Predict the structure.
Amino acid sequence: MAESALVLFSGGQDSTTCLVWALSRYDHVETVGFTYGQRHHVEMECREPVRAGVTAIEPAWSHKLGRDHLIDLGILAEVSVSALTADQPFGTRPDGLPATFVPGRNLLFLTFAGIVAHQRNIRRLITGVCETDYSGYPDCRDDTMKALQVALNLGMDARLAIETPLMWIDKAATWELAQNLGGRALVDLIVEKTHTCYEGNRTERHEWGFGCGICDACRLRSDGWRRYKADTIR
Ligand code: ZN
Protein backbone atom coordinates (compact mmCIF):
# COMPACT_ATOMS: atom_id res chain seq x y z
CA MET A 1 0.00 0.00 0.00
CA ALA A 2 1.30 3.45 -0.87
CA GLU A 3 2.34 5.35 2.25
CA SER A 4 1.54 9.02 2.42
CA ALA A 5 2.63 11.75 4.82
CA LEU A 6 1.73 15.33 5.66
CA VAL A 7 4.69 17.53 6.67
CA LEU A 8 4.22 20.61 8.85
CA PHE A 9 6.28 22.89 6.65
CA SER A 10 7.21 26.45 7.64
CA GLY A 11 10.05 27.12 5.20
CA GLY A 12 12.71 26.91 7.91
CA GLN A 13 15.73 24.63 8.24
CA ASP A 14 14.08 22.01 10.42
CA SER A 15 10.86 21.57 8.47
CA THR A 16 12.76 21.51 5.16
CA THR A 17 14.93 18.68 6.49
CA CYS A 18 11.75 16.89 7.60
CA LEU A 19 10.20 17.39 4.16
CA VAL A 20 13.14 15.68 2.46
CA TRP A 21 13.20 12.98 5.17
CA ALA A 22 9.56 12.23 4.28
CA LEU A 23 10.21 12.33 0.53
CA SER A 24 13.04 9.82 0.96
CA ARG A 25 10.69 7.37 2.75
CA TYR A 26 7.12 7.73 1.60
CA ASP A 27 5.31 7.53 -1.73
CA HIS A 28 3.24 10.67 -1.50
CA VAL A 29 4.03 13.75 0.59
CA GLU A 30 1.91 16.86 1.10
CA THR A 31 2.79 19.98 3.08
CA VAL A 32 0.82 22.24 5.39
CA GLY A 33 1.74 25.72 6.62
CA PHE A 34 0.11 28.17 8.98
CA THR A 35 -0.15 31.91 9.15
CA TYR A 36 -0.82 33.06 12.69
CA GLY A 37 -0.19 36.79 12.69
CA GLN A 38 3.58 36.40 12.76
CA ARG A 39 5.50 39.67 12.99
CA HIS A 40 7.54 38.54 10.00
CA HIS A 41 6.27 36.72 6.94
CA VAL A 42 9.74 36.01 5.59
CA GLU A 43 9.63 32.34 6.53
CA MET A 44 6.27 31.82 4.83
CA GLU A 45 7.61 33.46 1.67
CA CYS A 46 10.41 30.88 1.61
CA ARG A 47 8.01 27.95 1.41
CA GLU A 48 7.35 27.82 -2.35
CA PRO A 49 10.98 28.43 -3.42
CA VAL A 50 12.11 25.72 -1.00
CA ARG A 51 9.50 23.23 -2.27
CA ALA A 52 10.59 23.98 -5.84
CA GLY A 53 14.27 23.73 -4.90
CA VAL A 54 13.82 20.35 -3.23
CA THR A 55 12.13 18.83 -6.29
CA ALA A 56 14.96 20.12 -8.50
CA ILE A 57 17.52 18.14 -6.47
CA GLU A 58 16.02 14.69 -7.00
CA PRO A 59 13.58 13.89 -9.84
CA ALA A 60 11.88 11.13 -7.81
CA TRP A 61 10.95 13.69 -5.15
CA SER A 62 9.10 15.86 -7.66
CA HIS A 63 6.80 12.92 -8.45
CA LYS A 64 6.15 12.32 -4.76
CA LEU A 65 5.54 15.91 -3.68
CA GLY A 66 1.84 16.68 -3.63
CA ARG A 67 -0.19 19.73 -2.84
CA ASP A 68 0.50 22.42 -0.28
CA HIS A 69 -2.15 23.43 2.26
CA LEU A 70 -2.11 26.91 3.77
CA ILE A 71 -4.23 27.50 6.85
CA ASP A 72 -4.97 30.90 8.33
CA LEU A 73 -4.82 30.84 12.14
CA GLY A 74 -4.68 34.62 12.48
CA ILE A 75 -6.85 34.45 15.56
CA LEU A 76 -3.88 32.96 17.44
CA ALA A 77 -2.13 36.35 17.54
CA GLU A 78 -5.23 37.89 19.12
CA VAL A 79 -5.37 35.50 22.05
CA SER A 80 -1.77 34.31 22.39
CA VAL A 81 0.57 37.27 22.81
CA SER A 82 4.31 36.70 22.35
CA ALA A 83 7.42 38.34 20.93
CA LEU A 84 6.69 36.55 17.64
CA THR A 85 3.16 37.92 17.30
CA ALA A 86 3.41 41.36 18.93
CA ASP A 87 5.95 44.14 19.21
CA GLN A 88 7.44 42.84 22.43
CA PRO A 89 11.09 42.44 23.42
CA PHE A 90 12.87 39.11 22.97
CA GLY A 91 14.43 37.52 26.01
CA THR A 92 13.08 35.49 28.89
CA ARG A 93 9.63 35.75 30.45
CA PRO A 94 9.23 35.96 34.25
CA ASP A 95 8.27 32.25 34.29
CA GLY A 96 11.52 31.29 32.56
CA LEU A 97 10.01 30.54 29.14
CA PRO A 98 11.35 32.38 26.08
CA ALA A 99 9.39 35.52 25.08
CA THR A 100 9.08 33.95 21.63
CA PHE A 101 6.96 31.12 23.01
CA VAL A 102 3.46 31.28 21.48
CA PRO A 103 1.22 29.42 23.95
CA GLY A 104 -0.81 26.73 22.22
CA ARG A 105 0.83 27.15 18.82
CA ASN A 106 2.01 23.60 18.25
CA LEU A 107 -1.12 22.20 19.86
CA LEU A 108 -3.20 24.05 17.26
CA PHE A 109 -0.84 23.29 14.36
CA LEU A 110 -0.87 19.56 15.03
CA THR A 111 -4.64 19.55 15.53
CA PHE A 112 -5.30 21.33 12.23
CA ALA A 113 -2.71 19.20 10.44
CA GLY A 114 -4.45 16.15 11.91
CA ILE A 115 -7.78 17.32 10.49
CA VAL A 116 -6.25 17.77 7.01
CA ALA A 117 -4.48 14.40 7.18
CA HIS A 118 -7.57 12.56 8.41
CA GLN A 119 -9.74 13.99 5.63
CA ARG A 120 -7.16 13.11 2.97
CA ASN A 121 -6.53 9.59 4.26
CA ILE A 122 -2.94 10.47 5.16
CA ARG A 123 -1.75 8.48 8.15
CA ARG A 124 1.55 10.14 9.02
CA LEU A 125 2.13 13.63 10.37
CA ILE A 126 5.75 14.76 10.23
CA THR A 127 6.96 17.68 12.36
CA GLY A 128 10.41 19.13 13.04
CA VAL A 129 10.00 19.64 16.77
CA CYS A 130 13.03 18.80 18.88
CA GLU A 131 13.77 18.73 22.57
CA THR A 132 17.53 18.08 22.38
CA ASP A 133 18.81 21.44 21.20
CA TYR A 134 15.87 23.78 21.23
CA SER A 135 14.51 27.09 22.43
CA GLY A 136 12.78 25.68 25.52
CA TYR A 137 9.24 25.49 24.15
CA PRO A 138 7.18 22.99 26.16
CA ASP A 139 5.03 22.18 23.12
CA CYS A 140 8.08 20.79 21.30
CA ARG A 141 8.57 17.99 23.81
CA ASP A 142 8.24 14.33 22.97
CA ASP A 143 5.58 13.84 25.65
CA THR A 144 3.51 16.69 24.16
CA MET A 145 3.63 15.01 20.75
CA LYS A 146 2.71 11.61 22.17
CA ALA A 147 -0.20 13.11 24.11
CA LEU A 148 -1.41 14.93 20.97
CA GLN A 149 -1.24 11.74 18.94
CA VAL A 150 -3.41 9.97 21.49
CA ALA A 151 -5.85 12.90 21.70
CA LEU A 152 -6.19 13.21 17.91
CA ASN A 153 -6.72 9.50 17.45
CA LEU A 154 -9.30 9.28 20.22
CA GLY A 155 -11.06 12.47 19.16
CA MET A 156 -11.31 11.59 15.46
CA ASP A 157 -11.38 7.79 15.74
CA ALA A 158 -8.23 7.77 13.60
CA ARG A 159 -4.86 5.99 13.49
CA LEU A 160 -2.57 8.93 12.83
CA ALA A 161 1.13 8.64 13.70
CA ILE A 162 3.06 11.80 14.62
CA GLU A 163 6.67 11.31 13.49
CA THR A 164 9.46 13.58 14.77
CA PRO A 165 12.74 12.82 12.95
CA LEU A 166 14.61 15.63 14.73
CA MET A 167 13.37 15.01 18.28
CA TRP A 168 16.58 13.49 19.67
CA ILE A 169 19.24 15.10 17.51
CA ASP A 170 20.95 18.46 17.89
CA LYS A 171 21.31 21.22 15.28
CA ALA A 172 24.68 19.94 14.09
CA ALA A 173 23.11 16.53 13.46
CA THR A 174 20.20 18.22 11.65
CA TRP A 175 22.69 19.71 9.16
CA GLU A 176 24.34 16.28 8.93
CA LEU A 177 20.96 14.65 8.26
CA ALA A 178 20.33 17.08 5.38
CA GLN A 179 23.75 16.22 3.99
CA ASN A 180 22.97 12.50 4.14
CA LEU A 181 19.51 12.92 2.58
CA GLY A 182 20.30 15.31 -0.25
CA GLY A 183 24.04 15.90 -0.31
CA ARG A 184 25.67 19.23 -0.87
CA ALA A 185 22.77 20.41 -3.05
CA LEU A 186 20.31 20.15 -0.18
CA VAL A 187 22.66 21.77 2.33
CA ASP A 188 23.19 24.65 -0.11
CA LEU A 189 19.42 24.98 -0.64
CA ILE A 190 18.82 25.12 3.12
CA VAL A 191 21.56 27.74 3.58
CA GLU A 192 20.33 29.90 0.72
CA LYS A 193 16.54 29.55 0.73
CA THR A 194 15.29 28.62 4.19
CA HIS A 195 14.68 31.13 6.93
CA THR A 196 14.96 30.79 10.70
CA CYS A 197 15.75 34.26 12.13
CA TYR A 198 13.14 35.64 14.55
CA GLU A 199 13.97 39.19 13.42
CA GLY A 200 13.02 38.40 9.80
CA ASN A 201 16.47 39.51 8.65
CA ARG A 202 17.19 38.55 4.98
CA THR A 203 19.92 41.11 4.36
CA GLU A 204 22.83 39.74 6.40
CA ARG A 205 24.28 36.64 4.74
CA HIS A 206 26.45 34.31 6.82
CA GLU A 207 27.95 30.96 5.80
CA TRP A 208 24.96 29.28 7.51
CA GLY A 209 22.38 31.48 5.75
CA PHE A 210 20.55 34.77 6.25
CA GLY A 211 19.72 36.22 9.67
CA CYS A 212 20.55 38.78 12.33
CA GLY A 213 23.08 36.38 13.87
CA ILE A 214 22.00 37.35 17.38
CA CYS A 215 18.48 36.03 18.12
CA ASP A 216 17.96 32.58 19.68
CA ALA A 217 16.99 31.03 16.35
CA CYS A 218 20.10 32.39 14.60
CA ARG A 219 22.28 31.33 17.52
CA LEU A 220 21.02 27.73 17.39
CA ARG A 221 21.36 27.58 13.61
CA SER A 222 24.87 29.08 13.52
CA ASP A 223 26.17 27.04 16.50
CA GLY A 224 24.90 23.88 14.83
CA TRP A 225 26.52 24.86 11.55
CA ARG A 226 29.90 25.44 13.22
CA ARG A 227 29.80 22.09 15.00
CA TYR A 228 28.66 20.34 11.79
CA LYS A 229 31.52 21.88 9.83
CA ALA A 230 34.02 21.11 12.59
CA ASP A 231 33.03 17.43 12.74
CA THR A 232 34.15 16.72 9.19
CA ILE A 233 36.25 18.58 6.67
CA ARG A 234 33.76 19.30 3.90
ZN1 ZN B 1 18.13 36.21 13.97
Summary: Residues 153 and 159 are 6 Å apart (CA to CA). The pocket of zinc ion is lined by residues 197-199, 201, 211-212, 214-215, 217-218 (CB under 6 Å). The chain has a mean pLDDT of 91.
